[in-house]
Design brief:
- It is a single chain.
- This protein has 96 residues and is mainly alpha-helical.
- It has one domain.
- Helix content is 23%, strand content 4%.
- A hairpin with a 2-residue loop joins strand 1 and strand 2.
- The protein is globular and about 45 Å long.
């Protein structure tokens, strides 16, 4: 089963990226994969994750650990802090 396919994101230095979508759309899977993490029973079977010109999937465990938290990070959303679909997203982001 393919969980996520054909994703391409480009982010400029100093910028922040947020993934927004329906429950089960693959946001967490994409975020975790960007740091070479996979949930139990899940593996990355193809493609590449390029960070500052390096494919972190080929960096090895020690190399990836050195990147996490310094060059790339993942912040999970609390279910209690979820966006309300009844209100405009921009109003909720500005409020935060």
């Amino acid at each position: 089963i393919t969980l996520v396919h054909d994703v391409s994101l480009t982010l400029e230095k100093g910028k922040v990226l947020g993934l927004i979508g329906e429950s089960g759309a693959g946001k967490s899977t994409i975020g975790l994969s960007s740091m070479a993490y996979g949930r139990g029973g899940v593996r990355i079977t193809g493609g590449e994750v390029i960070l500052n010109g390096r494919d972190i999937l080929k960096a090895g465990a020690k190399g990836v650990r050195a990147l996490r938290g310094r060059e790339v990070c993942y912040v999970a959303q609390s279910a209690a802090a979820a966006f309300n679909p009844a209100h405009k997203l921009i109003d909720q982001v500005v409020e935060a």
